[in-house]
Design a protein that fits this description.
The chain has helices at 28-36, 56-65, 77-87, 105-115, 144-153, 157-162, 165-168, 195-208, 214-223, 225-228, 238-249, 256-259; strands at residues 2-7, 22-23, 26-27, 44-50, 68-72, 92-97, 122-124, 140-143, 176-178. It is of the alpha/beta class. The longest helix has 14 residues, at 195-208.
Length: 267
């Protein structure tokens, strides 16, 4: 069974409650769910949230949407993913995050289909670097076996927080492949972390409500450079890089050097 497991919580420090912010009378999270439902490769949608009381609203949302919800550790997201996959008998995990509400279901399918060729332990559309899809379009696919190994062996705080760094940041441990966009779209930021991101995403949804094609989004943004400028100053993956620094402070070898390595599509 192929399950899309989406990590979600209300406690974002940069934009608290961001995934439940309303656009056209729907919470942002609902737009992501509706897009994932259009994927032809996903058998089950599971939201993995925390046991923090602030995340009760996410569990209630799942009930209204009739999708599965798992509640686990707030800090150890890797463990939360493993326990969610185990509870719902997921064989292949499609890792998504709740702050990517503009994700195109065809992009999800493209990454899953590549994984289904059974040549790789891990397939994504942004790693190995360089990324060609917009920030906010991350899709990662791997097996329950790989997730179990990561959960058993990962010790660094960054591995426990970011789920897949144990897989992606060790070049020789797992066989990896990157799915590329036909055009380099890496300059676009479609991720939801800050107020500026929300303003851009809100504009796209209000203009293109119901359309899920990445091409439609890019065409709209290209016609409205003032919208692109809203969040163009924000650098991607700052939280990830910060966690690598925290690893170093605790005496672990930092992944920072591996993060910046450029590679071919296959690693």
């Amino acid at each position: 069974m192929i399950g899309a497991i989406i990590q979600a919580r209300m406690g974002s420090t940069r934009l608290p409650g961001k995934i439940m912010l309303p656009v056209l009378d729907k919470p942002i999270l609902e737009y992501l769910i509706n897009r994932i439902k259009k994927s032809s490769c996903i058998d089950e949608i599971i939201i993995a949230t925390s046991i923090n009381k602030n995340d009760d609203i996410i569990e209630k949302f799942c009930k209204t949407q009739k999708i599965k919800c798992f509640r686990g550790s707030e800090e150890d997201v890797l463990l939360r993913y493993f326990e969610a996959a185990k509870k719902f008998s997921v064989d292949v995990i499609v890792r998504l995050t709740s702050d990517t509400p503009l994700l195109d279901p065809k992009v999800i399918d493209k990454v899953v289909l590549k994984y289904n060729e059974n040549q790789y332990d891990f397939v994504s559309n942004f790693f190995p670097l360089p990324r060609t899809y917009p920030d906010g379009y991350n899709v990662e696919v791997f097996s329950m076996k790989v997730l179990k190994q990561a959960n058993q062996e990962a010790e660094k705080p960054s591995d426990r927080e970011h789920v897949t760094t144990f897989i992606t940041m060790q070049p020789n441990k797992f066989k990896k492949y990157r799915v590329d966009s036909e055009k380099d779209l890496s300059k676009y930021r479609l991720n939801l972390d800050y107020k500026e991101d929300f303003e851009l995403i809100k504009s796209v949804i209000e203009e293109l409500d119901g359309k899920t094609d990445l091409e439609d989004i890019i065409n709209y943004l290209d016609k409205h450079p003032e919208i692109i400028k809203l969040n163009s100053h924000i650098k991607p993956y700052q939280n990830l890089l910060k966690s690598f620094e925290e690893d170093k402070k605790l005496g672990y070898e930092s992944y920072e050097k591996n993060y910046y390595l450029k590679s071919t599509r296959e690693l």
